[in-house]
Amino acid sequence: MTVAKRMYLLMLIVALGITSLAGVEIYQIKRVYDIANYSNVNSIPSILVLDEGLKKFESINSLIWQHTINTDNTKMSAIQIKLADTHKALNTILLKYENELITNDADLTLLKKTKAVLAEYDVIAGDVLTKSLANKKNEAREILLSRPSSLENVRDAFHKHSIFHADISIKSAKEVNLVKSSAVIMAIAIGISILVAVIIFGLYITRNLLSQLGGEPATLATIASELAAGNITTNITVAQTDKSSIAYSIKTLQKTLDGIIQSLAFVTAQHKAGDIEITIDTYAFKGAYADMATGINTMVAGHIELNNKAIAVVKAFGEGDFDRPLELFPGKQAGINATIEQVRHNIKTFVEDMRHMSEQHDAGATDVIMNVAKYQGTYAEMAGGLNGMVSGHIELSNKAMSVVKAFGEGDFDAPLEKFPGKKAEINSTIEQVRNNIKLFITDMNHMSHEHDAGDIDVKMDQAKYKGVYKAMAEGVNGMVDGHITLNKKAMAVVQGFGVGNFDIALDTLPGKKKIINDSIEQVRSNLKSLVTDTNMLAEAANDGYIQKRADASQHQGDFRKLIEGINQTLETIVGPIIIVKSAAESVNTAAKEIATGNTDLSQRTEQQASSLEETASSMEELASTVKQNAENAKQANQLAATASSVALKGGHVVNEVVQTMAAITQSSRKIEDIISVIDSIAFQTNILALNAAVEAARAGEQGRGFAVVAGEVRNLAQRSAGAAKEIKELISDSVHKVESGTKQVEEAGKTMQEIVASVQLVTDIIGEITAASVEQSAGIDQVNNAITQMDEVTQQNAALVEQAAAAAESLEEQAQAMTDAISQFKLNGISSNHHQAANASVASRSIKPVTKASKPQASVEKMSAKTGTNDSDWEEF
Fold it and tell me: Could you give the number of structural domains in the chain?
């Protein structure tokens, strides 16, 4: 067997081994792909379809909850339509799964179980919707809350089905690992077998080659090198029996090589000149020389072919095929392989670095660039240029992001430089975002301005927005509606206070809103306490106990000032009443004494003829009495003027009370406005609780607890709204009662004016008494000065006495009327029998004819004592 055949056989063995290895590996790779790809074609699509079905079921559950908490027929009809569409979509998803994605009998069994629990839930959902449509919302929600297992069963069925497919994926992954391990073992076994076969056959070929070479390859290579260098005199030693080895042939060749040296020199010169197609003329030689020439020509042709193969690989590189193979050249020709592989490595490294930078930038590490230092020459320039281009794009992105950041900080006028070409689309996008945000802020400012102006029904136009902006507009409108509703509930309670209904209820508000309940209850308590004290004073006044007072220390702020003002007013009124009552009793007593004195005077006048001395004495007594009466009348006149002034001050105080009651009415109306705010907050809380219940229903079992809390919050919000309404009614009732109190105070003012008029009348009467007393004094003086003319003026005196008696009687009647008018007032520390005792004192006096001057004198002293007592009472006041 020739060396070539042996080499062919060796290559055939290697080829068969590589082919076997490749075939086995392809088969194993296909198995790994089929097993690993099963998750992509079945497990993952199945899980996605089941997840979509679960989402539809959660939507159905959320819609049922929305139906149970909604009372608007239009919205309920819309929910029913959406519920039917969602249920139909769920059935379609399950049918698609059954027709396209069933894996095995276990998968089909799980699907049937899922349908079964869905059927059970449909029965419960039907009962809930029936109750909800019959407006039995609480019973419908109670059904849902009492059967949580039905909801959990459906979720558990979908979850177990998904876990089933996840387990299949896990099993596939384990099977892939087993196949991979067996493939690796098989590849190693085949590789080792091929390697052993190649080594054995290679050793066999090596021994045969050495015997054919006739010496060591290195020695022959040296000889060949010497021959190649032109040294054809090298001594070659061969065995005597060697007639066929290469060494023998080389030795024979030495003798004939000189003949072809010139031909080689010629061919070499031509090749250096670029004409690589020139060869040695083989016809110029014969035998071995001809063969040698042919061999040289063949060698040159081999080098040319080698260069062409290398150039073909470089051309493939230029066309983007960096995996184009180049056969491995032997010996020093392997340098060509090294050079080509170096170029291939540099290009592939450059491409890999670009790919790595791209992945890092996609992951967010925008500061990653190519390492220019690892390249040289043009490759370094290419890496630097690529880094510059990427940095430019990053800088562009940073400029755009700085504007977006300014938007996030509230600066919507942040400028952005104009980018050229297609980069201008960035400017368009930024401006669109800027305009949308500015439009939203403008609408919010408009709504705020309109609400400040009183138009609280103005809302943001949701239809002009899309996406998140629309959701934001809906959220703002919902929040504002909630505040308005809470305010209305609170104002309803304040309105109730305004109309005198202090028992109107306000729902207990949650969280920090409870301060509204505290404020309303404090106002309610203060107003009730104020009304209680006012009623107590009114009842005491009706019973005549005008000195009874309310405890102002039980009130605070303006309420305390109001009670103190009422008490002070009563004190101001009671003081003059005490003075007037005492003065009336004094005047009544004096009038009775005057009447008695006039009677005595008439009797004495009739007896003047019998006793001038007695007459003179009586006249002196009468003069003294009249003077004393004049002084008393003067003091009574001054006291009456004082009482009139005090009564006027009482009227002013009553007017101030009326103004205070008006201020209280205005405060109650402000409280009514506050309760309106509370009512609006309660309404907003109700809306937020409703939204929370819907979101909790969407969250399923995880949101069940939150749904219960949201329901309670909604109930609290509704109760808060009711309580706010009741408080408003109470405050309205309070305003009504305060207005009624104001009217009563106005009536008290009118009564004070009547008292002032009465006191003024008393003052006029006492003035008349004073004038009469002056006239009496003048007449008596005339009597004393003209006693000798007694006979002439007897009739005049009699007439004067009659006039004095009439005036005394009139004075007595007026004094008695004034005493009766104020007798209804019960005063502490003043005996109710004081007036009766005075009358008894006067009545006990014996009216007898005066026979001696000493009796009238005694009467004067007794009157003086009485007057002195009255003076003491006035001084104490």
Answer: 5
